[in-house]
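Researcher: Structure prediction, please.
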Amino acid sequence: MYKKIINVSFNSVFEKKDALSKALLIPLVLFIILDILLKNPTSGFVYFIIMLITFALSVTVAITTHRILLIDDYPVPKWGFYKFSSREWSFVFNSFLLGIMIVIPSIIFLLIPYVGFFLTLIYGIVIFSRLSLVFPSISVDEDMDFSTSWRISKEYKLLMVLMVVIMPIFISAVVGFVYGTVIKYLAQVISPHFLLLGSVLNIIITVFVISFLSATFKYLKETRPEIFNTNMEYENKEIENIEHMESDGLIKIMIPDNYDTSFDQLKNELYEQYSILGFTSEVLDKDNSWMIKNPDVQNSYVSLSILDNRFKVEVFNSTQPELSVLNENV
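Model: Predicted structure follows.
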């Protein structure tokens, strides 16, 4: 799962480098001009205008990159977007809203002695990673709000943190340090004009950072299309009953996926219970199916899979599964 998303993140950028280069050329030129203007003494008002234009350009770069990476046929005009539409304004509005959701609680956390900084850092990472699916969704003209992004990412908390926050930060740090050092060296040895390459480096890093979010969004949509299609109706639909069946040594439990549990949680609980009983041989481990066996008991197994919006638990030739979701609904 993680390897696949990383491969898609890099491969998609290289495969669509021509389209990205053309669509982002004008924003790149404008970034260079703005960078030059910022190096000269300016008034506070001019500085504010430059930062405003920079933010607007960043929004167009993000949307353009998401669309090129996620849409195959004619995602953007050849030379990119030149005006703000409802799509861009929605992106801006949700960016400010997410910023408020992170900044205001962070101010409170920072007031806590000793642990305030770490609480702020953890809170910011969790909130941004869980709610960031909104941005690729907006970019490809699909409806999604923060509550939907939070629901969709519920089963993929670690995935979101690693692929949307940790990996992009790591890539940015490594690439920025290596090529930033080269640019500074060229500027000192040959010409200060080489510092303008910093804008090129920044936009390249931005594209790769966005590609991780695009790849994660694409992976979740392809792997679990049902959690995208149900959207807001998901939370409001009537909760079905858990089905429990036993026959000839086989225990089968069907758990609707709108219960307060997840694939990873069920897998961990099953492994903790049955590994003690000798089920230590993992014969299957995929995103939507998992199975362990007991080498000492013939034909015995414990499996978990996702089938028609339900988690299917099967236990053959062993004891009843003890799951927290079953205890909560007794």
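Model: The radius of gyration is 24 Å.
Researcher: Thanks, that helps.
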